[in-house]
Amino acid sequence: MCTLEKRGDLFFLTLTGDDDHRLGLPIIDSLLSAIAEAKSQATRGSVFITTAQGKFFSNGFDLGWAQSAGSATAARARLNQMVLAFKPVVVALLSLPMPTIAAVQGHAAAAGFLFALSHDYFLMRRDRGVLYMSEVDLGLPFPDYFTAAFRSKIGSVSGRRDVMLRGMKVKGEEAVKMGIVESAHDSAESTVEAAVRLGEELGKRKWNGDVYAEIRKSLYPELCGVLGVAIATPKAKL
C-alpha cells in the first residue's frame, strides 16, 4: 500500500513493502486518499514527493488479478476497471496545488511509468531500475490518457516511438538524454536525497498553490482535454 508523511513543508508518499507495487484497486484507492490528504494540508511552500520501497517503484497494473478472473472477457473487464480507477490519480496529480517530484528508486513499468511521469519532476537511479512500457509486448492497446500523457510529457518524437512502439527498456542515463527524467543518481538513497534538495529549493519560492496548479494544467491542454480537466484562470492573491 502507501504511507503519507509530512516533514516540514515536504509531503512524502511512499509505496510500502518489498514487492513490485502493482496498481490494483486497493492501492489506487490508497494513493487517492494520500494525495487528497496532502492537498487538504497544502500551504505556500508545500512540495509533494513520491517514492517506493524495494526493487520496484511500480510494475504497473495488477495483471495477475485481472487474469485470475477466469475468462478472457472477464480479465479485460478487470483490466478496464483498473484503467478507469487510475485515471483520477493522474487528475489528482495534475491538479495538486504544489510542485510534485517522483524519486524513482527502481523499475517503473506501464502504469507505474505513467505514475512517475505524472509528476512535475522525475528523478531516478542510474545503477539499477528501468523505465518500460510493456503494452506493445503484451499485446495491449494504450488507454487514451496514457497516450496523451506521453505525448505531453516526452518532447522527443523518436523517444516516444522507442518507449511506446519499441518497448524500449530505458535506464537512468538514457532517460536523461531522452528528456524523460531530470537526473540520474547512484542509489535509491541518493535519488531521494536529490528529490529532497529539489523539493526544499522549490518550497522556498512559496508559490500560490492554486495558481501553480492552473499553470501546470495550461501546459498540457491535450492531456487535460482527454482527462476532462477544466483549465481556469484564478485570480492571484498577493
UniProtKB/TrEMBL annotation:
Coiled-coil stretches noted in the UniProt entry, renumbered to this chain: none
A GO CC term attached to the entry: peroxisome
Domain of life of the organism encoding this protein: Eukaryota
Catalytically driven reaction(s): a (3Z)-enoyl-CoA = a 4-saturated (2E)-enoyl-CoA; a (3E)-enoyl-CoA = a 4-saturated (2E)-enoyl-CoA
GO aspect biological process, one term: fatty acid beta-oxidation
Keyword line: Lipid metabolism
Pathway: Lipid metabolism; fatty acid beta-oxidation
EC number from the UniProt entry: 5.3.3.8
Annotated CDD domains: crotonase-like (cd06558)
InterPro entries per record: ClpP/crotonase-like_dom_sf, Enoyl-CoA_hydra/iso
Pfam families: ECH_1
GO molecular function term, any single one: delta(3)-delta(2)-enoyl-CoA isomerase activity
Family: Belongs to the enoyl-CoA hydratase/isomerase family.
Protein name: Delta(3)-Delta(2)-enoyl-CoA isomerase
Organism: Malus baccata
